[in-house]
Design a protein that fits this description.
Blueprint lengths: L3 E4 L8 H19 L6 H13 L5 H10 L5 H16 L11 H10 L3 E5 L4 H9 L12 E3 L9 H11 L6 E5 L2 H9 L3 E5 L14 E2 L2 H7 L5
Parallel strand pairs: 1-2, 1-4, 2-3, 4-5, 5-6
The chain binds the ligand CSCCC(=O)C(=O)COP(=O)(O)O and magnesium ion.
Amino acid sequence: MIRLVLLDIEGTTLPISFVRDVMFPYAAKALPALIEDHTNPQVVAARADIAISHPGEDPLKVCQDWMAKDEKAAPLKTLQGITWRQGFEDGTLRADLYKDVPPALKAWSEGGLRLAVYSSGSIPSQKLLYGYTEQGDLTSLFDGFFDLSTGGKKDAASYTKIAAACGLKPEDILFLSDIGAELDAALEAGLKVCQLVRPQDQTVPHEGVPHATDLNEVTQKFSLPA
Ligand SMILES: CSCCC(=O)C(=O)COP(=O)(O)O
Ligand SMILES: [Mg+2]
């Protein structure tokens, strides 16, 4: 029985174009100054991590390359999250979620399902994103937030850890994502899965997993509260 829905963000609840064309350019503009901030311990730690993975390289250049490739690197995600805070708090950024998302999340939550986020975006940026959406503050709908500090999204062990942290058996969790390798990892850990194949994101359907074009179809396919 499904007790918790675990949701990816980019390509699942939020168009990839919003991340690529709005959030990344905002972070790219703020990064050169941020990365020189030697007083912020999170920045110092992120720079130290970059120095370990890319010794002798310019940390700004490393981050810019990661962003160009949409690489899910933890130090980049930490730094981007710091830049986005100002944008969300001053109203420059507002998450334009897929329109089917807020009503479905509310119906699932009101119907007794627990909701949690698992995204490569840092936990502070997940909370900002759901705190400042075009449809208002949705953070109270979620009782768990997980990011790369739990482990990579293509690693089955991460999903085992999330199930344990939520106090649930893996089979009681439904994981929603657009990325086939993430779904395969969750499936390997024993979770139920469904791929969001959003036409706007031109997602390629992945073999061996159920598909849905939006959360309404997920509701129907898995008999979730409507
Ligand atoms: C608060 S998430 C911002 C988008 C982002 O940076 C990202 O990497 C999303 O990746 P996901 O795992 O949600 O596909
Ligand atoms: Mg995604």
